[in-house]
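Okay, can you check this protein?
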Amino acid sequence: MKDSLKQLTITYEIMKNLLIIILLITLPVVGFAQTKKGSADHKRKCIEAQVITDDVKMYRQAATSSEILTSLKTSDEVLFLRKHNNHWAVVTVGDKAGYVLYGEITNRAVPTPTQPAIALQKKRK
């Protein structure tokens, strides 16, 4: 009786360890899965931005010595993904993702209306 209980305990421990190993392998894969770039969820997590001047360089890595992917203009549709550190921002432009110096981007300017807003007034009885 003792031997069968000991064998059952050993089998339980092996199964528990196997389950932990499987979870440790699969959780990072599931956790780091990203949404497609073109999906609405991806765009919702981004902030529309624009570069402050023309000819702002977008780099492959967060270093000015890395490969320049493209030069951005103020008219380009830039999506701010996140701040990499105090100097660099991770952005996407079209289907390209890269790094831009953080001081060279800003929130996309909201177009000002061509006609002044008319204040609505309540009618008094």
About this structure: The beta strands are 47-51, 56-59, 68-72, 78-83, 88-93, 96-101, 105-107.
